[in-house]
Amino acid sequence: MLGPLNLNVPKGEHLVLLGPSGSGKSLFLEILCGFAWTDSGSVVLNGEEILGLRPDKRKVGLVMQHPALFPHLTVAQNIAYSLRANGISGKYLKNEVLYLAEKCKVDHLLQRNPESLSGGEIQRVSIARTLAAKPKLLLLDEPLSSLDVQLRDELRNFIRELKEEDIPVLHVTHDPEEAIRLADRVGVMHEGKIVQLGDPVAVMRNPSNPFVAKMSGTKNYFKASIIPGKSEAETNIGKVGKLNFKFTGTADSTVGFLLIDENQIFISIEKPVTSSLNVFEGTINEINRMHSGTEITVDIGVNIISRITDESFIRMQLFTGMTCWIAFKATAVRYIC
């Protein structure tokens, strides 16, 4: 079930909807472009109600996860398809195809057939073909999820450049990194509804509930019994199993969730001398080298993840099975109910 949804995408904005499979993201795009129907609601584009129009009359462009280029046409012919369908020919057609091909960085592929293209090249051609139709709204349905890491980075940079076209972009994905790198605003979808909407950094750092925390890539969140401090100046205690996590702020319930920023959890091989209120001894049970930093999973009674620099990882010579200490301030812990 989808909705209720109330969403406005201004001209030139890149809005990303983040959510898992089955949350309604793709269905929402299908309704917008006319491939699926809804019994109620309204879709207004540039002041015009388009919900009752056929897909080809809506001026909405859709780029899918697995775009279907016409296999019997060259790249140039694929890009030119909608132009020819609208009666455009001659020099203007040739110039427009070349302009879009150059913009999408596929001008060296114009005489190639789709079967000879890489995944990233296919997506670029698909976007060029979509832009040729002069859409007033561009929909991107998981455009990067089927690509390898290098192609994903290249196409992400290209999609960022689409802002020059000043077309509103509505982009759905399940990847929080993709959302935070591309979005002007991000909305998190759950069971057909947008449960949080706002600035990407604000949403990722301040999730409003445990579902948003999970979708935003928060590594450490725990259900806890809460013992509130006697005043806002005193720390609260969140009991997770036999552990007591101390945190600041208002705690207005006896149960809730604690979110701990992995970037503010410090690791040492000896018990630290620190002002941090949360200090625990544990055992390293997993090490993941990332493209930026290293994630260390430490068992302190629960598994907790710290992200440290590669330099720190090498300096401390950490390894799985090693005993270590973690420390984090009360301000590194957020409470949500």
Describe the protein.
The structure is a single chain. This protein has helices at residues 25-33, 75-85, 90-103, 119-132, 149-161, 176-182, 200-205, 210-215, 310-316; strands spanning 14-18, 44-45, 48-49, 60-63, 137-141, 169-173, 185-190, 193-198, 220-227, 236-240, 243-247, 255-260, 266-268, 278-289, 294-299, 303-308, 323-328, 333-336. It is an alpha+beta fold and 337 residues long. A 6-stranded mixed sheet has the order 4-5-6-1-7-8, with helices on both faces. It has a 5-stranded antiparallel sheet with strand order 11-10-9-12-18. Helix 4 (119-132) packs parallel to helix 5 (149-161). It is elongated, with a radius of gyration of 25 Å. The two termini are 26 Å apart.
The low-pLDDT segments are none
Structural class: alpha+beta
Shape: elongated
Distance between the termini: 26 Å
Content of β-strand: 25-35%
Helix and strand layout, with pairings?
Blueprint lengths: L13 E5 L6 H9 L10 E2 L2 E2 L10 E4 L11 H11 L4 H14 L15 H14 L4 E5 L7 H13 L7 E5 L2 H7 L2 E6 L2 E6 L1 H6 L4 H6 L4 E8 L8 E5 L2 E5 L7 E6 L5 E3 L9 E12 L4 E6 L3 E6 L1 H7 L6 E6 L4 E4 L1
Parallel strand pairs: 1-6, 1-7, 4-5, 5-6
Antiparallel strand pairs: 2-3, 7-8, 9-10, 9-12, 10-11, 12-18, 13-17, 14-15, 14-17, 15-16
Helix pairs in contact: 2-3, 2-4, 3-4, 4-5
